[in-house]
Every structure is written in structure tokens, then in C-alpha cells.
Amino acid sequence: MTIVYKVSLIAEAPEGEEYAIVTLTINNLQNDKTYSFSSLLVAVYDEDGFQYESDFTALTALKQGLVGGEILPGKKLSGKIPYLVPVGADIELHFKYDIFGGTTAVFDLS
Q1: Under a CB-based contact definition with an 8 Å cutoff, are residues 55 and 23 in contact?
Q2: Nearest C-alpha neighbor of 95 from the set 109, 85, 106
Q3: pLDDT over threshold 80, residue 48
Q4: Which residue, among 97, 84, 77, 13, has the nearest Cα to 44 in the 3D structure?
Q5: What is the pLDDT of residue 1?
Q6: Can you give the pLDDT at residue 6?
Q7: Domains of the chain
Q8: This prediction's pTM
Q9: How far is CA 109 from CA 5, 34, 37, 58, 89, in A?
Q10: What contacts 73, CB < 8 A, 6 or more positions away?
């Protein structure tokens, strides 16, 4: 996959790799606390346990790229995070939503 912004090429996946673009919506269900989100809390893993971080070059090319931000009580934050992964890899998303408590949610993206 090639990501193009306006008319200039921004990010192109090398041979044997492709972009997995994950769309996330994080809802702050708390009534009185602001939640700080960072895309660094999210990573994808393949079936062999290899970790893939978000691809910053591709992230800047996306109109709705999600880097992070403060989420007020009762509000939400949405956007897309691109990952450069091997073609055809079975991947799962790990979201460390409670970094201090070590709580991680895992989602199968196969």
C-alpha cells in the first residue's frame, strides 16, 4: 500500500511489507478525570510475538492520524494509526490503557 498526501508521495511500504491502518476510538467514561492518551500505548504484534510500533512517516500522511491528546470526562478521541507489518501477517493490537496498573487490552486484527 502507498499512502499519498495531496499530490506528493509520503510513505510507501517496502516490498514484502504493508501498512495495517488501525482506526481507534477511545471513550473516557470517567465522570471527573481527564484521560491522557498516547499512541505509544498501542502496538501490534504478529503471530511470532514480534512487536511493531506505529510508523511516524505514514502517520503524518494520514488526514486523521492519531498521535495522542487529553480526553475530557465523557468525551472521546478518534483517529488512525498506521503500522508497517509483513504482508499477510496475523496481527493483534495491544492497548495499555492503564499503564500504572499494567492492564492491557488485546484485540485480534486477523
Answers
A1: no
A2: 106
A3: yes
A4: 84
A5: 55
A6: 46
A7: 2-108 (2.60.40.1240)
A8: 0.80
A9: 25, 28, 21, 19, 10
A10: 28, 30, 31, 32, 33, 34
Task: Estimate the share of the chain in helix, then strand, then coil, as percent rounded to the nearest 5.
Answer: 10, 55, 35
Q: Which residues pair with 2 in a beta bridge?
A: 12
* pLDDT one-digit tens code per residue, 6-23: 444 577 888 999 999 999
Strands 91-98 and 42-46 come out as antiparallel
**30 three-class SS:** coil
What does the pLDDT look like over 78-102, one tens digit per residue?
A: 999 999 999 999 999 999 877 677 7
In 3-state terms, what secondary structure has residue 62?
Answer: coil
Residues 6+ apart with CB under 8 A from 71: 26, 27, 28, 34, 35, 36, 37, 77
* pLDDT average, residue stretch 20-30: 92
CA–CA distance, 36 with 77 (Å, rounded to integer):
10
Whole-angstrom CA distances from 59 to 6, 7, 28, 65, 103 are 14, 16, 23, 5, 26
